[in-house]
Design brief:
The structure is a single chain. The protein is α/β, with parallel strands linked by helices. The strands form 5 sheets. It has a 5-stranded mixed β-barrel. A 5-stranded antiparallel beta sheet has the order 17-18-21-20-19, with helices on both faces. The model has no long low-confidence stretch (mean pLDDT 96). The chain contains 14 helices and 21 strands.
C-alpha cells in the first residue's frame, strides 16, 4: 500500500463536496477528491434535478387539464417516455458523471474513485470501486472533510426486504409509469413523487405512520396538501401502522391492521439514513450517532470537518453548499461570519410548500412569546385572478418581544419563490415596522405576505 501526501482530502463528492474541492483547489491547495459512486452525488442523478424535471412534466399535464375551467378545451394524453428520456439524456447523461468528474480535475484537484475511510489522524484509505487494484493511502497536512451524505432509509417492516420495492433511485430511473403505486412515507420526497406519478395516470396511495403528512412543516401545510391530493384522486392515509409487505410476483400488498392496499409498484420514501458507518470514525476517536456533531466552522475534531446531510442540520443541497463554503473558510483561515440556522426549504408539490426558520410549535418550545399571522393565498388578489390551482397560504411566526419574524411558511403556485422575501426577513431580522411599511406589488402572490402581517 502506497501513501500520498496532500493538503486536504474530501470524501464524498455530492454538491457540497464538489464545491469545496473546487474552492480549495483554486485557492492553491493540493486536494484529493474521493467518490465511490457518481461525482455530483444524489442530487443531480437521483434527486433534485431529475425529480424537478419529472414534477415539471406532471405540472404541465395538470395545467392542461385545468384549461376546461378557464379558457377552452384540451385533450391530454400523458407520455411517460418523454420525461424518462429527458431525465436520462439531459439531467443525468444516462447516469454518466464524466462532465462532473472533468470539473474536478479542471479545478486542479486529484479525483480518486473508491470507498474512502479514515485510517487515523488526517489519513484516508481508499479502496478502488472496481477491479482488484491496491488500496491507496492519502495523508492530508491540513485535514479531511467528510461529505458522505445519506441513503434511503428502509424501515424494518416484515416482508419488505424480500420484495422488489423502489426507492427514489428506481422511481427516477423508471422507463414506464406503473398502473398503480403505493408510497410509504409522506415526507417531501414521497409526496413529490406521488403527485408526479399521479399526473401520469398512475393510481397512487400514500401511507404515513406519523399523525400527518409533511410532518416537519406547519400543520396548515399538511392539511392543505392532504386536501389537494385527495381532490386529485390520491389516497392519503396518515397515523397508520404498517404490519407487513408482500409481493406475489406481480403485485404488492401492504397490510395495515384490518386494511390492505394493493398496487403494481411500491415506493419506499421513509426518510434518509446518514452514511456514518464504515468511514473509520473509530480511528480518530469519534463516536457517531445518527449524525456527526460539528461546530459552526463544520469541524468535528482537530483536522476533521464534516458537511452536508451527515451533520444533522438539514438535508438540503443548498445547505450542503453553505456548509462547504464555511468549511473552506475555516481551512483557509478566512472570516466565517455568523452561522445561518434559518435556512429555507421547499417541497416541490403543487402547491409548492416553502418554509424558513422556526415553525410555530418550535418557536413555542423555545419559550418565545408568539403571535401568528395567517392568510389564504387563494383569496388574495393574485389567487383570485389565477383561479383553479390557486390553493395556498402564508403563515408568519412573530417573536412578540423582538417584533420580528422568526419563521414563515409560503405555500401556493409559486410558494418556493415567494418564500425568498420571507427568508430574507427572517435571516436579517427585519423589524415588523419596516415590513409593514413596505410597498408590495399588486397583484402578486407575494403581496399576501402583507395580508399575513
Amino acid at each position: 500500500m502506497s501513501a500520498h501526501e496532500c493538503d486536504v482530502v474530501v470524501v464524498g463528492l455530492g454538491p457540497g463536496g464538489e464545491a469545496l474541492v473546487a474552492r480549495l483547489a483554486k485557492a492553491g491547495l493540493a486536494v484529493v477528491a474521493v467518490e465511490a459512486e457518481l461525482v455530483g452525488g444524489e442530487c443531480p442523478y437521483w434527486g433534485c434535478i431529475p425529480s424537478k424535471m419529472f414534477i415539471r412534466a406532471g405540472n404541465l399535464l395538470a395545467e392542461a387539464r385545468r384549461i376546461a375551467r378557464l379558457s377552452g378545451a384540451a385533450t391530454v394524453t400523458p407520455d411517460f417516455s418523454l420525461v424518462a428520456k429527458r431525465i436520462r439524456d439531459e439531467a443525468t447523461d444516462n447516469w454518466d458523471d464524466t462532465v462532473a468528474a472533468d470539473r474536478i480535475t479542471a479545478a486542479g484537484a486529484t479525483l480518486v474513485r473508491g470507498h474512502g475511510r479514515l485510517a487515523g489522524d488526517r489519513t484516508v484509505e481508499v479502496n478502488p470501486s472496481t477491479g482488484s487494484g491496491q488500496a491507496e493511502t492519502y495523508v492530508a497536512a491540513k485535514g479531511v472533510v467528510l461529505n458522505t451524505g445519506t441513503t434511503a432509509a428502509v424501515p424494518p417492516i416484515p416482508g419488505l426486504a424480500e420484495t422488489p420495492f423502489w426507492t427514489n433511485r428506481e422511481a427516477l430511473k423508471a422507463e414506464q409509469a406503473p398502473a398503480s403505486l403505493i408510497v410509504i412515507g409522506g415526507g417531501a420526497i414521497g409526496l413529490e413523487l406521488a403527485q408526479a406519478y399521479s399526473r401520469f395516470d398512475t393510481e397512487v396511495t400514500v401511507l404515513e405512520v406519523a399523525p400527518r403528512i409533511l410532518a416537519p412543516e406547519e400543520p396548515e401545510s399538511s392539511e392543505l396538501l392532504a386536501t389537494v391530493f385527495e381532490s386529485e384522486g390520491i389516497g392519503v392515509h396518515a397515523g397508520i401502522t404498517i404490519d407487513r409487505v408482500d409481493h406475489d410476483g406481480s403485485r404488492f400488498t401492504v397490510t395495515c391492521g384490518g386494511t390492505t392496499y394493493e398496487a403494481e409498484q411500491l415506493l419506499v420514501a421513509a426518510g434518509r439514513r446518514s452514511r456514518v458507518d464504515d468511514i473509520g470514525l473509530e480511528t480518530v476517536g469519534v463516536e457517531a450517532g445518527k449524525f456527526l456533531t460539528v461546530g459552526d466552522d463544520m469541524q468535528v475534531t482537530d483536522g476533521l470537518w464534516a458537511i452536508g446531510d451527515i451533520v444533522g442540520r438539514g438535508a438540503f443541497t443548498h445547505l450542503s453548499m453553505y456548509h462547504a463554503e464555511r468549511a473552506a473558510k475555516a481551512i483557509l483561515d478566512e472570516p466565517l461570519g455568523a452561522y445561518d440556522d434559518s435556512f429555507p426549504r421547499v417541497t416541490f408539490t403543487d402547491p409548492e410548500v416553502g418554509g424558513v426558520g422556526l415553525t410555530e410549535a418550535q418557536a413555542r418550545d423555545k419559550g418565545i412569546d408568539v403571535r401568528v399571522g395567517l392568510t389564504d393565498v387563494a383569496a388574495s388578489s393574485r389567487g383570485f385572478v389565477h383561479g383553479v390551482g390557486n390553493a395556498g397560504l402564508i403563515k408568519v411566526i412573530i417573536d412578540t418581544d423582538r417584533d420580528i419574524i422568526v419563521g414563515a411558511t409560503s405555500a401556493g403556485p409559486t410558494g418556493g419563490e415567494t418564500l425568498s422575501a420571507l427568508a430574507f426577513a427572517v435571516r436579517a431580522e427585519i423589524p415588523l415596522e419596516t415590513l409593514r411599511n413596505t410597498v408590495y406589488a399588486y397583484p402578486t402572490f407575494w403581496r399576501a405576505i402583507e395580508s399575513a402581517l
